[in-house]
Design goal:
This protein is of the alpha/beta class and 721 residues long. The chain folds into three domains: 269 residues, Alpha-Beta Complex (2-enoyl-CoA Hydratase, Chain A, domain 1), CATH 3.90.226; 181 residues, Rossmann fold; 109 residues, Orthogonal Bundle (N-(1-d-carboxylethyl)-l-norvaline Dehydrogenase, domain 2), CATH 1.10.1040. The protein contains 29 helices and 18 strands. The strands form three sheets. It has an eight-stranded mixed β-sheet, with helices on both faces. The N terminus is likely disordered. The structure holds (2S,3S)-3-hydroxy-2-methylbutanoyl-COA (T1G).
Length: 721
């Protein structure tokens, strides 16, 4: 007899048939465990317990996934703490008098995985994934997850999964002991059949709360090693270390319940932290950037992209090759071109090396790699471009060269082809002006190395059509890039804001710092690398060459700029002129011992250049505090961000923040520059400090306060009164 009863308002359907109760979570798209879901599961369990015909329970998710975790949108509201809490549900599942089987498909993450680990058996479909991604949103698995995982898998693996936040596929989850069985299809019916077969088995040994932690023999060494590794990697984020502390409670606390209590305390500490709020903001910001909208109202909702199948990439240097790899990785056929055979051969070699390194790391098979490489056709002229859907130009950053390329493309490509430039600074409208179809021209600014970096800044010009924009955004997503749409100006959003940051780093050297002082302060803030380390890694010669061609380098240019009322530090040019191009030459702002060396050591030669410069220009060197370094490097770029917003170059804070998190290493737990300014420092303070620096450094345009910032700071101050 079927006893089906939906509790739709509770977002969990309950049905009972042939002794098996099915509780199916129904909260699309990801079945997040919001209050109504929790209530629904609890009520379902109550009914299953009370129904004498029910012998076992299957818990699953409807639609595309098993619950992917707590509802993050509830965190800032009273609903997060409204009963029943997830911990109570987990306790109820664990101690349930009838067997509970979790039928896992899709992504069982966070609270979803905690439900699974509280059930007595876990059956997963082949394509399922599980994980604890909480650390990415600044918290920990706070509904018994840190106490349960080390009881089903080895302590070391539990630490790895919780601290990294990585998802594992069904097969790895099986090897780790997290799931008991993998099925090819129809996981819910297989779980129901299984449930029927085990109704008579004793439940005691299946309750995770009463299992011992696995691998405790070397616990102290394991924890110490994990702590050291995490301190090195977490760049000041507090969640990863706190996760370790919570897992430690599973070993150190006398009972499971006491461990859960400790986990709750640590969860509360993290939940209250500014870092967690920043990371949760970043989670939604990341998802908001694909919902692009232009100031004229045209948006992703109203525009359909063209499906790109074939592309041409012009330039087989580091950038062009990285772009080609990204394209073939999503199945797009590519014509790769260079100006001569030698460069083309070299480009193809690099491309093959990148693809086959995936084979060495067991990411893809040899035949998959060969298939990918076969998608690339190296060519020396534009003859084959007449049918491609898109061309992405990645030649030297020089307007005249780019114009030449675009004129040629305009002549050979089909009228519907999109012509994209991978420029990092140049004016898209000027590039488009040499074509007969400026509506098809768009900027696609990849970050180096293009096949690895997740960010893609897409730039629309005056004439760029909405279809062209939609296609660039769609192609970006297909290449698994986080694509952000921005307007056209020098440097767009990312590099425009980078300008003041780099300039201030240089001025700080003139006034008293050495590269290591500036870099240390930036690393302490949470950047993986400081400004000078980054420059050494990227190589300073390309930027120098571009500036030199434009006549914008050296002390004479610095004097010229000062005459124009604009300060410029020529120290970067002087370092390049001393043959110090960065890591690749073994010397840059730091000494690396040998070309290609990694370990950066301070270098007296650099310090001499800096000190002599200060002396020669009568700049009195002084001790500069880390606080001043941070304010001058970061508040100047924040001011520029507000100007980009004010001018409509950036559409929203989230776009800027995501560009900085994914393109420039802004620490995620600091939210992004706009979030940081608004929520972690406060606009009145940021504005006051910008005014302060403006009063001292009148000849640095970037300190002129943004009007938007001023307005918002004043209204924030007024609302506090
Ligand atoms: N809460 C609320 N909304 C969520 C959500 C969540 N947990 N996960 C996704 N969404 C929204 C998302 O904003 C988007 O909305 C839509 O769902 C589709 O997501 C107690 C405390 C599951 C792998 O951190 O990793 O459990 O933009 O575009 O690429 O210890 O979403 O369409 O309006 O990302 O297919 C832990 C986070 C929570 C999982 C699917 N769980 N989610 O990826 O789609 S904390 C997570 C994801 C917790 C416990 C603790 C991914 C996904 P919109 P999407 P997708």
């Amino acid at each position: 007899m079927c006893n089906c009863m939906s509790l739709h308002n509770e977002m969990a359907n309950y049905s009972a048939e042939k002794q098996i109760a099915l509780i199916s979570v129904t909260n699309p798209p990801v079945n997040a465990l919001s209050h109504h879901v929790r209530q629904g599961i609890m009520n379902g369990l109550k009914r299953a317990k009370e129904d004498p015909n029910v012998q076992a329970v299957v818990l699953c998710g409807s639609g595309r996934t098993f619950p992917a975790g707590a509802d993050i949108t509830e965190f800032a509201s009273h609903l997060a703490t409204k009963k029943p809490h997830l911990v109570e549900i987990c306790t109820e599942l664990d101690s349930f008098p009838k067997p509970v089987v979790a039928a896992i498909h899709g992504t069982a993450l966070g609270g979803g995985l905690e439900l699974c680990l509280s059930a007595h058996y876990r059956i997963a479909s082949k394509s399922a994934k599980v994980g604890f991604p909480e650390v990415n949103i600044g918290i920990l698995p706070g509904a018994t997850g840190t106490q349960r995982l080390p009881r089903v898998t080895h302590l070391k693996s539990a630490i790895d999964l919780i601290v990294s936040g990585r998802q594992v596929n069904a097969s790895e989850a099986y090897d780790l002991g997290i799931v008991d069985q993998i099925v090819d299809s129809d996981v819910v019916s297989k779980a129901s059949e299984f449930a029927k077969s085990i109704v008579m088995r004793p439940l005691g040994p299946r309750r995770v709360s009463s299992m011992p932690v696995k691998g405790i023999e070397h616990a102290s060494t394991i924890f110490e090693e994990a702590r050291q590794k995490t301190i090195r990697r977490s760049r000041g984020a507090i969640a990863p270390l706190t996760c370790i502390q919570a897992i430690q409670a599973s070993v150190e606390q006398p009972t499971f319940e006491k461990g859960v209590q400790k986990e709750s305390e640590l969860m509360y500490y993290l939940m209250q932290s500014g870092q967690a709020r920043a990371q949760q903001y970043a989670f939604f910001a990341e998802r908001s950037v694909s919902k692009w909208q232009r100031p004229n109202g045209v948006s992703y909702k109203t525009t359909k992209p063209v499906r790109v199948k074939t592309a041409a990439v012009i330039g087989a240097g580091t950038m062009g090759v990285g772009i080609a790899v990204s394209l073939i990785s999503c199945g797009v056929k590519v014509f790769l071109t260079e100006q001569n055979q030698e460069y083309l051969n070299r480009g193809m070699e690099i491309l093959k090396n990148i693809i086959f390194s995936g084979v060495k790391r067991n990411r893809i098979s040899k035949s998959q790699a060969e298939k990918l490489v076969s998608l690339v056709t190296p060519v020396l002229d534009y003859g084959s471009f007449s049918h491609v859907d898109i061309v992405i130009e990645a030649v030297f950053e020089n307007m005249d060269i780019k114009k030449k390329v675009f004129r040629k493309l305009d002549a050979v490509c089909k009228p519907s082809a999109i012509l994209a430039s991978n420029t990092s600074t140049l004016n898209i409208d000027e590039i488009a002006s040499v074509t007969s179809q400026p509506d098809k021209v768009v900027g696609m600014h990849f970050f180096s190395p293009a096949h690895i970096m997740k960010l893609l800044e897409n730039i629309y010009g005056k004439a760029t059509s909405s279809e062209t924009i939609a296609t660039a955004m769609d192609l970006g997503q297909r290449m698994k890039k986080i694509s952000v749409l921005v307007g056209n100006c020098h440097g767009f959003v990312g590099n425009r804001m980078m300008g003041p940051y780099t300039a201030e780093a240089g001025f700080l050297l003139e006034e008293g710092c050495f590269p290591q002082d500036v870099d240390q302060a930036l690393r302490d803030f949470g950047f993986a690398m400081g400004a000078f380390q980054t420059s050494d890694l990227a190589g300073a010669d390309i930027g120098y060459k571009i500036r030199k061609e434009l006549g914008l380098v050296g002390p004479r240019w610095a004097d010229e700029r000062l005459r124009m009322g604009q300060r410029y530090s020529p120290l970067g040019d002087m370092i390049v002129e001393a043959g110090r191009l960065g890591q690749k030459t073994g010397k840059g702002w730091y000494n690396y011992g040998k070309p290609g060396g990694r370990a950066n050591m301070r270098d007296v030669e650099v310090e001499e250049i800096i000190v002599n410069f200060s002396k020669k220009h009568d700049i009195k060197r002084r001790r500069i505090s880390p606080q001043e370094i941070i304010e001058r490097c970061l508040y100047s770029l924040i001011n520029e961000g507000f100007k980009a917003l004010e001018e409509g170059i950036a559409a929203k804070d989230e776009d800027i923040d995501i560009i900085w998190i994914y393109g420039y290493g802004w620490p995620r737990h600091m939210g992004g520059p706009m979030y940081y300014a608004k929520n972690m420092v406060g606009l009145p303070k940021v504005y006051e400090r910008i005014c302060h620096y403006h009063s001292i450094y009148k000849n640095s345009k970037h300190w002129i306060p943004s009007t938007l910032l001023k307005q918002m700071a004043l209204s924030q101050s007024a609302s506090k009164l």
